[in-house]
Amino acid sequence: MAEETKKYLYLVTHGTETPERSASPFFLATTAALMDHESTMVFTITATSLLKKGVPETLHIKETGDSSTLQFFIEQAREAGVKLYVCAPSLDLNNCTLEDLIEIDGVVGGTALNEMAAEADVVITF
Fold first, then answer.
1. pTM of this prediction exceeds 0.90
2. pLDDT one-digit tens code per residue, 4-14
3. Residue 62 within any structural domain of the chain
4. Strands, E assignment, the chain
5. What is the CATH number for 77?
6. Is 2 within a domain?
7. Could you tell me the superkingdom of the organism this chain comes from (predicted)?
8. What digits encode the pLDDT tens for the residues 55-65?
9. Structural domain harbouring 49
10. Which of 31, 51, 45, 41 is nearest to 10 (CA)?
């Protein structure tokens, strides 16, 4: 019997102020996608800052030692098919526009985010 595809929603709320927290949501979302589940990430509050152009290439997960940048984790997620969305109000909070961000799959408001959460089998927040 084939396993049913599940919907995973990762709600990311922490941004560049806590770089050590930035890789885990991408890692877990990538893992879900590689397990053939639908995997979606929504960035809100300060997490939208992680998606600003220039940030992923320069944000190191660890301050010292051999540290991957956030770009590595974003590339893995994209290759696995993870969808990336930002919460509309967080654009203003982070003083940015869509043009300031890396390529994403869309912008969601409160209603859409609530619907995504209601339809998900699993919701994980960071």
1. yes
2. 889 999 999 99
3. yes
4. 7-12, 38-43, 83-87, 106-108, 122-125
5. 3.40.1260.10
6. no
7. Bacteria
8. 999 999 987 76
9. 7-125
10. 41
